[in-house]
Write a structure and sequence with these properties.
- The complex is a heterodimer of chains A (776) and B (176).
- By secondary structure, chain A is α+β, with helices and mostly antiparallel strands.
- Helix content of chain A is 24%, strand content 25%.
- In chain A, strands 4-8-2-15-12-13-14 form a 7-stranded mixed sheet, sandwiched between helices. Chain A has a 6-stranded mixed sheet with strand order 10-18-17-16-11-32. Chain A has a 5-stranded mixed sheet with strand order 1-31-28-27-19, sandwiched between helices.
- In chain A, strand 5 and strand 6 form a beta hairpin.
- The relative contact order of chain B is 0.15.
- In chain B, a hairpin with a 2-residue loop joins strand 1 and strand 2.
- With 176 residues, chain B is an alpha+beta fold.
- The chains are: A alpha+beta (776), B alpha+beta (176).
- At the A-B interface, helix 1 and helix 14 of A face helix 1, helix 3, helix 4, helix 5 and helix 6 of B.
Chain lengths: 776, 176
């Protein structure tokens, strides 16, 4: 195991060449991001632009009786108002089913649903124009109880019905009962991705107005080509007429996988014939993108007295909110991960994703598995207690291995070092018991805690997370690489959202091609799709595409050198910055002075290759939830140490320790950044983050009221990386972004329960609120 | 939309013409003076992305009316410079025009999406500039002083590391 402290890599053998794979190469955009010159999507501007803004529904469910935009148009400075009647193409869009209107026409289905948009000369003029638009609503009863969506007790709130998807998993012997039985019902609140860079875009009309025109959109997104397809369809344009350029992305975490302002902004630009800038406020951002699904999970484990799991039963209900987004895929991720990283041959699982008049939910880091993991890890602690075992021991006894089957019948072919990550986590030192000053206590400088009442707890959690897309989706990625005179130019449409793919792409090119100079071309739709920056997939998929394109270029380079020097191209390799001949008896480069040695930089011929990386195909689930629906898996284990003030119900997380299965750390510093950042979001869900909706109305759509972890909340993180290269992965590396968010939350909750002793079993909901602790 | 005034930004007098009196300093910096390094992310002074220095004090430019900043020295991320002392140490072994704080952010891995970064760079400068050697802030003081700046990507670990590097180089070891 590599233990990473302060982001440096201990010397194991020869360090990799600077900037190549395995090195903690620095970000190519780092300087621009610290000196303020990096352009985020809200920073793009162009002469003659006007501002755009959106009018939104104040009701969770209502009929639009009258919409009158004329008063807004009469305001000086207002240049356009658009609503449903002005959408030239498809009236609806969506990632999986196209069920969400660009603008509500007859009915609004959630608070915040777009009704109209305006363009004007100043943001303040926009605000006044929105105020001037007259909308008369007939308020309708709102569907707010997910169970009512399932039972049919509530009339359909959408033509597609109130059930987005239902999936059962039935495997093995359904009659197994006990001898040890533990069960519980667990709840998760709605979490917001809360990226800092608010939704913003610049749309440029490309040639006047009208349906034949095109548009260029500088926008922050996770998936340029999917956005383009949806935007073009709604605008009634061919896809080629819509050019998407990645505006700098200020974080994403799933919230930018769906369309938000894209169609509105482009439509206003086409309508006015002028460039249009849109920029959401924080409140609007809370209303304008999808969230992590609130979920209720009932789970029952049947086990032997020694803790061996014999059968699981579970029922999942995901509240998808008003529109489908990716709810059906989130549901599948939830139910297929119900067993956690443990062997289990028998299962009965039922899952629902339903429509309500709450905010729409879709992708957020962990994508359905966060919900499943909170339930199965809470259950594992109950099982440990029921069997008189240590929490780690019950997990170790059931730990999944490569070759085991999931409850879907799928064989886990990925490297699965579950037992190892549990063991190595158990060997990590504990933080010392000392608290330094009031800041270290729950409640901090509020000085609310009586130190003698504060109780320390320790909790553990382990997770399995699928990588890439599932259920037959071919989420390929494309890269184009050109090489000339030692300069590699790499082009891809992979959304850089902060994760550092731009760093990795350069590392791959330097390693494969023997160059130091790498130019990254503009990230836009003038190359094939890269798929989405989500599902922990871009290191594997776009990394695979860049690697593949570089290898094609390298073959051409070797052919060229072989032809000129009269050697067999198969005997050439890259050594540092040179093409060299290999000694066939050793497989190593011939020493200097023997054989061919040509600096890559001396080859003044251009090679230009494009490569698509596809992962292996996956299958649909059948009616019993059986099928090879996932691509690959990664594992992580977390230990949390917390201090709890039981008087006020406040929690201070003291330390998180983690061991993560990463395959191979291609950039250890980036891996550490993903792990620490992912844990912070898991901590947020554990103890503070929840979008509160009362009667369908969001009550805390601001950073004053929706709490995020600060420097004071986030503890030090102790990190161990398990590097067992994944044979399926192009460079042996697994995605690392999601696992830290998946099992950090249940580890923290387990630690809170541990601190509370017997009363702790009553903690079954996240975020854990003060009243959840004090009300026990 | 008829306000005219002059702001003193990054050492220059900058004319603001035909402005609406209700515009925040953030809006004027970004949209009228085209200094887009300063970011807005909450409009409520909660996240610190819009942090600038006004008369050497760290303020949220989203909460400050631009018209009330007349006559004050405003420094944004585009104009930030290290202390003279830190600058001379910097000149010996460095490259480019970055301050030691900015350089530490890049080298420690403190930057991911980078949206919070300009505000944090200003907050770290406000923390360390003007302190005498030996007057190193403690770990707790660093966390408290930076707690008005939210980062959603990094979990703060590498940012803390960047700050430790700067403090160590300028002021001495960071105490617990």
């Amino acid at each position: 195991m590599t233990v990473v402290e302060h982001g440096t890599r201990p010397d194991v053998g020869a360090p990799p060449r600077r900037g190549t794979l395995g090195d903690s190469t620095l970000r190519p955009d780092g300087v621009a991001k610290v000196d303020g010159s990096y352009l985020f999507s809200g920073d793009h501007s162009i002469d003659g632009f006007v501002w755009g803004a959106t009018l939104r529904s104040p009701h969770p469910h209502a009929r639009i009786v009258r919409l009158d935009t004329a008063p807004a148009l009469a305001i000086p400075g207002v240049v356009a108002v658009v609503s449903a009647d002005d959408v030239p193409g498809a009236p609806t869009y969506g990632l999986i089913s196209h069920d969400q209107p660009v603008f509500a026409r007859d009915v609004v289905r959630f608070v915040g649903e777009p009704v109209a948009a305006v363009a004007a000369d100043h943001p303040e003029t926009c605000r006044r124009a929105l105020d001037a638009i007259i909308v008369e609503y007939e308020v309708l009863p709102a569907l707010l109880d997910p169970e009512a969506a399932i039972t049919g007790a509530f009339a359909p709130i959408h033509p597609d019905g109130n059930v987005i998807r239902h999936q059962r998993i039935v495997r093995g012997d359904q009659s197994i009962v006990g001898p040890v039985v533990v069960e519980g019902t667990y709840e998760l609140g709605m979490q917001d991705q809360a990226f800092l860079g608010l939704e913003a875009a610049l749309a440029e009309p490309l040639s006047g107005t009208g349906t034949s025109a095109g548009v260029r959109l500088h926008v922050a997104t996770q998936w340029l080509h999917e956005d383009r397809a949806q935007i073009a369809a709604c605008l009634g344009l061919p896809e080629e007429a819509v050019h998407l350029v990645l505006g700098g992305v200020g974080g994403a975490f799933g919230a930018r996988e769906d369309i938000s302002l894209q169609v509105h902004c482009a439509l206003l630009a086409l309508r006015t014939g002028r460039p249009v800038r849109m920029a959401y406020s924080r409140r609007e951002s809370f209303l304008g993108h999808v969230h992590r699904h609130p979920c209720t999970i009932w789970m029952r484990h049947h086990a032997d007295h020694d803790g061996t799991i014999r059968r699981i039963e579970a029922r999942f209900v995901f509240d998808g909110g008003a529109y489908a987004s990716t709810s059906s895929a989130v549901l599948i991720n939830g139910v297929t991960h119900a067993q956690g990283p443990y062997r289990c041959d028998n299962a009965t699982v039922d899952g629902w994703a339903v429509r309500t008049n709450h905010l729409p939910c879709g992708a957020m880091r962990g994508f359905g598995v966060v919900q499943a993991c909170f339930a199965h890890e809470s259950q594992m602690d109950r099982l440990a207690a029921a069997c008189g075992l240590d929490p780690l021991e019950v997990r170790r006894r059931n730990a999944m291995r490569t070759g085991d089957r999931l409850i879907t019948g799928q064989v886990v072919e990925s490297v699965a070092p579950v037992e190892r990550i549990i063991r190595e986590l158990s060997e990590m030192p504990m933080p010392d018991g000392e608290r330094t000053g009031a800041l270290a206590l729950p409640g901090g400088t509020g000085l609310t805690a009586d130190e003698s009442h504060v109780r320390r707890g320790v909790g553990w959690a382990v997770s399995i997370k699928n990588l890439m897309y599932s259920e037959t989706f071919d989420d390929y990625s494309t890269a184009r690489v050109r090489l000339r005179s030692g300069v590699a130019t790499v082009k891809f449409a992979t959304a850089e959202v902060g994760q550092g793919f731009v760093t990795l792409a350069g590392q791959i090119a330097r390693t494969v091609l023997g160059v130091d100079d790498v130019v990254l071309d503009t990230i836009d739709t003038l190359v094939g799709s890269a798929g989405s920056t989500s599902a922990s997939r871009q290191t594997w998929m776009s990394g695979g595409a860049v690697d593949g394109a570089c290898r094609l270029v390298r073959e051409r380079l070797f052919d060229h050198v072989a032809r000129i020097h009269g050697v067999d191209a198969l005997r050439l390799t890259i050594d540092g910055l040179d093409v060299v001949e290999v000694d066939p008896s050793t497989g190593h480069p011939l020493p200097a002075g023997q054989g061919v040695r040509v600096p890559v930089a001396s080859v003044d011929v251009e090679f230009d290759e494009t490569f698509e990386h596809h992962h292996r195909p996956t299958e649909h689930l059948d009616a019993d939830g059986q099928g090879n629906c996932h691509t690959a898996f990664a594992f992580a284990a977390h230990r949390a140490v917390v201090d709890v003030d039981p008087d006020l119900g406040l929690v201070k997380v003291v330390e998180i320790a983690t061991v993560q299965d990463v395959g191979r750390a291609l950039n250890p510093l980036s891996v550490v950044g993903q792990i620490e950042g992912g844990i912070a979001q898991g901590l947020g869900l554990a103890v503070m983050e929840e979008i509160v909706q009362i009667d369908g109305v969001v009550r805390n759509a601001s950073f004053t009221d929706y709490l995020l972890p600060t420097f004071m909340d986030m503890p030090p993180v102790r990190i161990g990386l398990v590097e067992e290269p994944e044979p399926q992965a192009p460079m042996g590396a697994k995605g690392v972004g999601e696992p830290p968010t998946v099992s950090s939350t249940p580890a923290i909750v387990a630690a809170i329960r541990d601190a509370l002793g017997e009363r702790g079993a009553g903690i079954v909901r996240v975020p854990v609120r003060p009243q959840d602790i004090c009300g026990l | 939309m008829a306000e005219h005034y002059t702001l003193h930004v990054n050492g220059e007098a900058r004319e603001v013409t035909d402005a609406w009196v209700g515009e925040s300093l953030l809006h004027v910096l970004r949209e009228r003076l085209e200094l887009r390094g300063t970011k807005g992310a909450c409009e409520q002074g909660e996240c610190g992305s819009c942090s600038v220095l006004v008369d050497d004090r760290l303020v949220c430019s989203c909460l400050t009316l631009a018209a009330t900043s007349v006559g004050r020295r405003i420094v944004t991320v585009e104009g930030v410079q290290s202390d003279a002392a830190a600058q001379s140490a910097h000149d010996e072994n460095s490259s480019g025009a970055l301050t030691d704080v900015q350089r530490a952010f890049v080298e420690a891995g403190a930057v991911q999406c980078g949206f919070c970064t300009p505000g944090l760079v200003m907050a770290v400068h406000a923390l360390v500039d003007g302190r005498a050697p030996g007057d190193a802030p403690t770990e707790d003081e660093i966390r408290e002083r930076l707690s008005g700046n939210i980062c959603r990507c990094t979990g703060y670990g590498r940012i803390m590391e960047a700050v430790r590097v700067v403090v160590r180089q300028r002021l001495g070891e960071v105490a617990r």
